[in-house]
From TrEMBL:
UniProt subcellular location: Cytoplasm
UniProt pathway annotation: Amino-acid degradation; L-arginine degradation via ADI pathway; carbamoyl phosphate from L-arginine: step 1/2
Name of the featured protein: Arginine deiminase
Organism: Photobacterium ganghwense
Entry-linked NCBIfam families: arcA, PRK01388.1
Gene coding for it: arcA
């Protein structure tokens, strides 16, 4: 029986979900990339090769790598899952009944690997071979998308996050990413690996609910261990979302405390893990420009009733030290002078994925910061990120741990 449990950020990583970027990147252009929340267009082949190095680096560390596209294709083998996905992702309200039906009929005849590729990577009007009797084809230009590509699926960290003995299936803040959540909803419900799994679903399982302002993304959620969770309230994660997740963590008895800290709402610090990650029990990587002493911070506690009580904390570092039961935290700041540090933070120097205590995966280009990690006794397993890094996410962003040991 598979074990679904993530007990920390730093315990031995055993199983992880990644997404190799392919078709979605071929649809990125300078004129549409910003709408799709990408800052740049990437070299597709090189990004894929860099991602392969990332996946193999993890495999060499004994981590089982699951790939999103494979899981989605296998989920489509379950007739109920396929029907649900086609109806949800290609609804009558999205396209009008006639065109929606034409697109669904075309797609449902495709081999499942190809269908998964289109759901993840998009379909332009010029790529649709059927002549529909609806107005939609005449109304839209050939380069418009019937199905928008989802390049941000590369960052599997955000759409769902495993916290102790369960998962939060996250309602995303930006429209360009909301369809991603339905893919993981289907996988966790119907894929044979998960269908009989013994785990809690804390939040977000129901696609029919309008989650309104209660959004949360996994890049803001750090499972620091010992029953505590650290969550950043960022551009994408709201206090309302944090409270919803906290309530269910307490209700199920999976966590005893959530530490919530406020982050500036700007692009370079989109999620907590772009400015702070956990590397060893008492050691965090931080970008000091953002992780300042005056950051507002609350400690949330509760019980089986699901009621959440918030107490403001004076300094988040003390709150973390208390939660982890360690002496003084060791904070390793981004390397180089202030210019170099800002550049390296933008290139995800702080966004490392810990494989086991004191061993992390990070981009090789962040030389100043990697040197500081090395001096602090942290081993960096370097991966190339010249293309991948332009998507504005590092190794932690690109991974969703499904099984990881406690500390």
């Amino acid at each position: 029986m598979s074990k679904f449990y993530v007990g920390s950020e730093i315990g031995q990583l055993r199983r992880v979900l990644l997404h190799r970027p392919e078709r979605a990147l071929t649809h990125l252009t300078p004129s549409n990339c910003h709408d799709l929340l990408f800052d740049d267009v990437l070299d597709v082949e090189r990004a894929g090769k860099e991602h392969d190095v990332f996946a193999n680096t993890l495999r060499e560390q004994g981590v089982e790598v699951m790939l999103l596209k494979d899981l989605l294709a296998e989920t489509l083998n379950v007739p109920e899952a396929k029907e649900w996905l086609l109806n949800t992702q290609l609804s009558d309200h999205r396209f009008g009944p006639t065109f929606a039906n034409d697109v669904r009929c075309f797609l449902s005849d495709l081999p499942h690997a190809e269908l998964a590729s289109i759901l993840l990577g998009g379909l332009a009007y010029s790529e649709f071979p059927v002549q529909s009797s609806s107005m939609m084809q005449g109304f839209n230009a050939p380069n418009d998308f019937i199905i928008e590509p989802l390049p941000n699926h590369l960052f599997t960290r955000d759409t769902s996050c495993w916290v102790y003995g369960g998962v939060s299936i996250n309602p995303m803040a930006k429209e360009a990413r909301q369809r991603e959540t339905n893919h993981v909803r289907a996988i966790y419900k119907w894929h044979p690996t998960f269908a009989q799994g013994d785990f809690h679903t804390y939040y977000g399982a129901d696609s029919n609910i309008n989650y309104d302002n209660a959004t949360i993304e996994g890049g803001d959620v750090l499972v620091i261990g010992r029953g505590s969770v650290l969550i950043g309230m960022s551009e994408r994660t709201t206090p309302q979302g944090v409270e919803q997740l906290a309530s269910n963590l307490f209700k199920t008895g999976q966590a005893k405390q959530v530490i919530a800290m406020e982050l500036p709402k700007h692009r370079s610090c989109m999620h907590l893990d772009t400015v702070m990650t956990h590397m060893r029990e008492d050691t965090f990587s931080v970008y000091p420009e953002v992780i300042r002493k005056d950051v507002k911070c609350w400690s949330l506690t509760g019980d089986e009733s699901g009621t959440v009580k918030a107490t403001e904390e004076s300094y988040f570092v003390n709150a973390i030290e208390k939660a982890l039961g360690v002496g003084q935290l060791n904070l390793i700041t981004t390397g180089g002078d202030s210019f170099e540090a800002e550049r390296e933070q933008w290139n995800d120097a702080n966004n490392v994925l810990t494989v086991k205590p004191g061993v992390v995966v990070g981009y090789s280009r962040n030389t100043y910061t990697n040197e500081k990690y090395d001096k602090a006794g942290i081993t960096v397993l370097p991966i190339p990120g010249d293309e991948l890094g332009r998507g504005r996410g590092g190794a932690r962003c690109m991974s969703c741990p499904i099984e990881r040991d406690d500390i």
